Amino acid sequence: MLKIVLVATIAALVAEASPMPRLQLPQLDGRIVGGVDTTIESYPHQVSVMYFDRHICGGSIIAHNLILTAAHCTRGQEYYFLNIRYGSSLKNEGGQIVAVSEINDHPSYDPTTQDYDISVLKVEKDFELSPKAQIIGLVSPNTQEGDRHAFVSGWGALYSGGPSPTQLQVVEVKEEARVACSKAYGNKITDRMICFKNPGQDACQGDSGGPLVSGGAQVGVVSWGWGCANARFPGVYSHVDHASLRNHIVGIMNRK
Length: 256
Known about the structure:
about 260 residues; six-stranded antiparallel barrel; alpha+beta
């Protein structure tokens, strides 16, 4: 009986401290490493997905009442536990907060491989757009892959297992060839994934679900990786231009 009570107590504490399912994931190192301070005015699409009032993941404004984030951030969650903070450069401070009213994980999301790792969240009321809160468009359909430069923003840890910043961070990364990335990860990269890297700079814990932006459009969602800012292993992002992911996103946009 004591063992059952202890297990239940530990499970409750873990659920409070880490609301996202972790054990069955690859390595969800979604943070900004080697980045620089920036402001929400420079990345007004950036939001914080919160468990009650605590930051757990990043996200982006893709419509007046929709957020794009990662399915591993929301899988197993109840919508009424989640809130969105937007319009602030500071984690857990400032801006405005709106409650989530609906979670739309991709129906094919696989928590073991992180394939189809996207989720679209609907909020209770429209965002109040301003210089600090703007909708970002998705990358144009069938955009050519390869050699793209992109920016990742977020409030994730500054180094693996380290503290996270209060001020929004941003880092520039470059697209890694699909063949090379797949080889690095033992052929675990699917068509729904794209890879970007910059040795010494990367996204990791706490940035999961955040936007990867190139040419003013969102091309990816921070998903997973092995280590952080490791030259051997690029960051892996959900490839929003892939038909199966785009169709899920646009389908929800069209019915909202």
